[in-house]
Give the backbone structure.
Amino acid sequence: MNYLFTPFRIKDLEIPNRIVMPGLASFLIEDDGSITDKTIEHYRLRAAGGPGMVIVEACAVSREGVVSPHQARIYDDRFIEGLARIAEVMRAEGAVPAVQIHHGGRQTSSKVIKQKPLAPSPLPCPTIRGEVEPLTVEKIQELVLKFADAAERAVQAGFDLIEIHGAHGYLINQFLSRFSNIREDGYGGDVKGRARFAIEIIREIRKRIGPDFPLSFKISAQEFVPNGLTVQESIKILKLLAQEGIDVVQVSAGNDATPEWIAQPMFMKKACLAGSAGAIKKALNIPVMAVGRINDPLVAEEILEEGKADLVCMGRGLLADPELPKKAKEGRLEDIRTCIACNTCMESIFRRGRVECLVNPVLGREKELVIEPAKEKKKVMVVGGGPGGLNVAWVAARRGHEVHLYEKQQTLGGQLVLGSITGYKKELLSLIEFQKRQIKRFGVKLHLGEEVTAEVIDREKPDLVILATGSSPAVPPVEGIDKPIVALYPEALNTENFKKLKVVIVGGGATGSEVALHLTDNACQVTIVEMLPKVGKQLESMTRKVLLKRLKSRGVQMLTETRVKRVEDNGVVVVDKEENEMFLEADRVIIAIGTRPDNTLYEQIKSKGYEIHRIGDCLEPRSAKAAIYEGAVLGRSI
Ligand SMILES: Cc1cc2nc3c(=O)[nH]c(=O)nc-3n(C[C@H](O)[C@H](O)[C@H](O)COP(=O)(O)O)c2cc1C
Ligand code: SF4
């Protein structure tokens, strides 16, 4: 790679290579805003993985600017010490320590800040809703000072670059955009008026930190909403901001109505914002950082080579594998655990108050989930080569156990293989490949195509048995379910039989809606029948939004609060919540109502006195994330 690992200079600051970890809320922060050893270890590991610069997650400049009780803060001197510890460990690991300063504006809840959220105009956040308090000029000027106070604290904490968060529909972005700013005073109206808040912040910061300290601005250059920012308007804004002294711009997208453009789900193309970064780079005289689904070092290299950016941000990529830069530099691309853009991380920060990753179970638990050599070597038999079985097998083998992994199919990966059949989920294959390489690397003995029975276990005499036997598709007890037009969802994914057909999918959860998308790729005409009020309810919200939009655009009919009463030879009879019956004609009926744990083997051996552990779907059908996590934990404890 000719570009990625060359240094880059912003003013006097030398960044050792072009990979930047952008601000990513880990929320590994205590409710009182204090930084813990977990936070430190999280950032130490990210820096140690070899990026040129790490930007610490959005730190609130003001108490009412906080978006979650777990958000990092910089609105008081008491936060300097914790932030300084992060800056210090990152510098010691060789990465430039940077920090982002932020105010949530209307994009927070009164439950979190115990007052009405502040906003440029009386327009509530489209997702959180609730009343907002439009800012007076006096209050705006107070906030300008708070941003500058925060910048001073960042310098005191030892950071080498400060980034102003002007993106993602937060307060500064709210001012910049006509979508959220309808003020008629000097802080609204034309580009200059809407940019005034940002300009005053930059001016005040410059006054405090001097002309030479590197300052970045993150912008959502495209908002994808009516009256929202476009690349052309963003260029006009950025020209004004550059005159005031920003040194580098990070080109992101999306706002509080279009979060799918903030952290782009797997449906979206890799590096989908690089074009906008390129346009901005051409129009401006300052360096540009590209961001957005750049999860592959080769893609990052291409962006640099094509001159679209000077630096590339890899955010989720470094959550999934902090060692990505190091591995890329050493040419070990196949060892990278690639981010699959599932957005479990985004969902977890808001739903669970801390960051978690589907492919990297260690994320956020770096101090708890260390791998230590086993005290006593054991013969371990793992049954099931799905995500959980694979993970437990290689972790146990890495610790020194003799591990035998049995899979009745000829291929590893379990449900992940099925999932990866749908075009947009192809990246799941990279997860299977990563797990397979670990299996090989740590010497797990593979038994493919071997079905394990109680007799096999008696013969092999393991010290312990780990059942990762997964689950099988559930079948609803309705009349006519045995008719030949009925198929279970794996058949619809696995075979070529479903082309240009009229199909009814029974079950509109994550699987049903993904199967629907796959079948529309094959020119099928699809109707989803779902008992709940929503289709795709279990899907992560951004993924769901994009998926449903796509299903609608392809004419998929979605019948919610509707259940199947009977299957006929040429369709199904369904009943809605008012008990109205309707006949839906179909060539095939696909059952996708979920799965049931497969515990056949467990029932056979549970009273035989073996030490047995169960992980993943055979305990209770859940996501691959749960299976991988359980495998990771068990592998470390046996
Ligand atoms: C869990 C999570 C937290 C994020 N937190 C921040 C943040 O604190 N500040 C910010 O500017 N962007 C934040 N983002 C957006 C990322 O910085 C980045 O713009 C986005 O994830 C796309 O880049 P990627 O595909 O490399 O992850 C966050 C994204 C995720 C997934
Ligand atoms: S949770 Fe999913 S999107 Fe987030 S870093 Fe991990 S793989 Fe990527």
Observations:
- The pocket of iron/sulfur cluster (ligand 2) is lined by residues 316, 319-320, 339-345, 357-360 (CB under 6 Å).
- DSSP finds 21 helices and 28 strands in the chain.
- The first helix runs from residue 37 to 48.
- The first strand starts at residue 8 and ends at 10.
